[in-house]
Amino acid sequence: MLNLRALDLNLLVTLDVLLAERNVTRAARRLNYSQPSVSVHLAKLREIFGDPLLLPGPRGMQPTARAEELLQPLREALESLERAVAPARPFNPAESQHTWRVAASDSSGSTILLPAMSAIRAAAPATRLAVLDLVPSQIAKQAEQGDIDLAFHTDDGSPPGLRRRTLFAERYVLAGRVDHPRLHPQLTLAEFCELEHVIVSPDRGGFHGVTDDALAKAGLTRKVVLSVPQFLFMMSVLASTDLVAMVPSRLVRSTKVLQIVEPPVDVPGYEMVMLWHERSHRDPAHQWLRETIAKSI
Predict the structure, then answer these.
(1) Which residue ranges traverse the bilayer (predicted)?
(2) pLDDT per residue as tens digits for the range 151-189
């Protein structure tokens, strides 16, 4: 059994960072230590635990089974200790120099972050905001490791175990260029299916989406002739061609170059949520950012 009274807390902090980075050089940089100092810490930790903990591998250092067992309990223990000793100070946005990192798609960036930018810059002019590409499969890991503060995703399919707040309910509308020769408010279902459609593919390069699921229930199909990865490119395509698209209504509510009509098919909408890790839930700065974004929508 380890003697906690004789154990240097700094060694546990080093171990936590090493398990996260799995690289002595990066760990040293993150801890603001020299590389030899981190190596000395690792040697002491190996002696204390009677285990090599991290072993050389083809893609950096690989944790042993004992290290894998330590990973989560150690992180939780250090987070609890950090909360216990951290001074409780109110957040002053006017003086803050925070750098926030959020994960967003191009559509959620336009509909959520863009409306909030003026309020954030006016109240917290010395802060910075980094917007990262949203990778749904990485949200939980990035939030757990502190790589992101917030993520914006549809409620359906969001990773479990994260705090969440519903920002708005979204619905789909049909959009095409203003002078589109075949797009009009009384569009029939047959006319809808004959139009040439562009889709932002949820599976990167696919030609099938929720609209096609809805049409299939009625035994119908549409002409999807273009698949793109982002809404920004899609918007340019719509404005310069005769292609049309089913798009989230908030994305096109202020456009002057597109014609928006109600589609003749009932396509289920979705709820957009803001996600964050439990570690940030009570942080005053994080609370301020969440409230500022939510109030700006």
Answers:
(1) none
(2) 999 999 899 999 999 999 999 999 999 999 999 999 999
Give the integer Cα–Cα distance in Å for 149 and 281: 10
pLDDT tens track for 180-189: 999 999 999 9
129 located within any domain:
yes
What token pair was written down for 67?
Answer: 């290290």
Residue appearing with tokens 């700094």: 10
How many domains does the structure of the chain reveal? 3
Question: Do residues 250 and 264 both lie within one domain?
Answer: yes
Tell me, yes or no, whether 262 lies in a domain: yes
Of 133, 137, 149, 269, whose CA–CA distance to 211 is shortest? 269
- Whether 178 and 257 have beta carbons less than 8 Å apart is answered as yes
Contacts of 165 (CB under 8 A, 6+ apart): 273, 274, 290, 294
Strand-pair partners of 174: 246, 261
Structure tokens at 114: 């863009």
| CATH code of the domain in which 119 resides | 3.40.190.10
How many residues belong to the chain?
Answer: 297
Range of the domain at 263: 172-268
Q: Is 20 exposed, middle or buried (0-12, 13-18, 19+ CB in 10 A)?
A: middle
Domain match, 134 and 21 both: no
